[in-house]
Amino acid sequence: MRPGTLHMIVGATGAGKTTYAIALAAREGALRLSIDDWMGQLFWMDAPADLGTWAFERVKRCTAQMRAVLAETCPLGLPAVLDAGFTTRGDRAYFGDWAEAAGIPCRLHWLDVDATTRRARVTARNAAGGGGTGFAVTEAMFDGMEAMWEAPTAAEMARWQGLRIGADETRGPGKGPENG
Fold it and tell me: Model-level pTM?
């Protein structure tokens, strides 16, 4: 049996990763794993006022468990769409290197959206109650994540069959991924 493809959804805060992931999973008949869903169900209700490193440790736990789920499902031929932030090259390598070693095809979908558009989306999402994230993304949080963000390199894009998706392809009624 041929393993299912692991689709890694990559983009800075507010790029539209979850919206894109939902559409791609529906189109591909894929399992969708979203860090926002996992953190919302397991941890946000217990979050301290000062998140500090608290959130990062829990994200690491969730992504480790996501990888365990993928280790069982992808070899069965089920494709998976992984919406786990992938802020840094190291975050992407954690899954991409593992998938490659396990013989699981991996595809990177980079949602390349400018910071002004993303900041406006986050502001709108906050005003609407967080949009399923379980928390409001403050200006300080946005700026902090922005400072950590590492766009995919040409080598990453080539290695993981990367698709670069523009802002117009990440939003809109009835609009799904066009290149996926």
Answer: 0.84
Q: Residue 85 corresponds to which tokens in the numbers above?
A: 């932030």
Query: For residues 74 and 104, is the Cβ–Cβ distance under 8 A?
Result: yes
Is-contact 95 8, C-beta < 8 A?
A: yes
Strand ranges of the sheet holding 106-112, from the earlier edge strand across to the other edge: 31-34, 80-83, 6-10, 106-112, 163-166
Higher confidence at residue 12 or residue 40?
A: 12
pLDDT in tens, 23-43: 999 999 999 999 888 877 776
In the chain, the DSSP E strands lie at 6-10, 31-34, 80-83, 106-112, 163-166
What the block records as the tokens of 169 is: 């392809």
Q: Which of 33, 53, 36 is nearest to 44 (CA)?
A: 36
CA-derived radius of gyration, the chain = 16
Q: With contact defined as beta carbons under 8 Å apart, do 105 and 6 qualify?
A: yes
CB atoms within 10 A of CB 118: 23
DSSP 11: -
Structure-model confidence comparison of residues 171 and 114, the more confident one: 114
| Nearest one of 105, 109, 128 to 180, comparing CA atoms | 109
